[in-house]
């Protein structure tokens, strides 16, 4: 009897909890972070969107350096460009393990000077960062607040103007990935290099251990699923000194790749400054076409040698 009495006293709270849970499940099923243009889209969702929500195929994975450098529609490789803003190998491991995208036949991984830094912040809206127990609305609360504020403003304005279409109007969120045309001035690049050196230059193997473990997991996954795994060291603007940790990082990664006979294309210090937008992003108009052709030629040579 005491139990039933307690439930009656708590019925309103329990009802609110049930409404919240049911509403969150419904919103999760709707998944507006993917399905609605009212909401911000991360680069993983943008990749799916621009490929008609295709969730399988050969992939060129990396961070924004890959996005800027690899021109998918000018490549004859058939690779899907999956450059993610601040993407790391730990992200790729989660994508593979959670089966968020089914890589087929070939997996090319672009590694630049930032791809393996464990502490580098990334986009928190990537789906693999959401714990199963965390409410959908709470996870994306900043974006619900942004879109909700816009909805309330337009509803209020449309009501005052007696304009129904204005009540429901919204600004579609940007759906394209960031590209990098032109070149930044030398003074800005020098300031950026100083910032990189201060933030990351002192790092050592301990600071990319998680991504080394992710690399091992990716290699195992490729072997288990019979994927052709290839690695590209992405270009760095060689007018500026390469970060101090890179020689050690390259040596460690290359040893692991060599142990599994994984082909490597080292373009880290192959491109002159004129090909770059900044320190790590090739210019879309000058550098990216050259890079795309070079990667295509390399992949074609590997395909011929394997026959």
Which characteristics define this entry?
Rossmann fold; 307 residues; SGNH/GDSL hydrolase family protein; alpha/beta
Structure notes:
- It is a single chain.
- The protein has helices at 2-9, 11-30, 32-35, 43-49, 64-69, 89-97, 136-139, 141-161, 164-167, 186-200, 209-224, 246-259, 287-305; strands at residues 56-62, 80-83, 102-111, 228-233, 264-266.
- It has 307 residues and is of the alpha/beta class.
- The protein has one domain (41-132, 175-305): 3-Layer(aba) Sandwich (Rossmann fold).
- It has a 5-stranded parallel sheet with strand order 2-1-3-4-5.
- Helix 12 (246-259) links the parallel strand 4 and strand 5.
- The longest helix has 21 residues, at 141-161.
- It comes from Paenibacillus rigui.
- This is SGNH/GDSL hydrolase family protein.
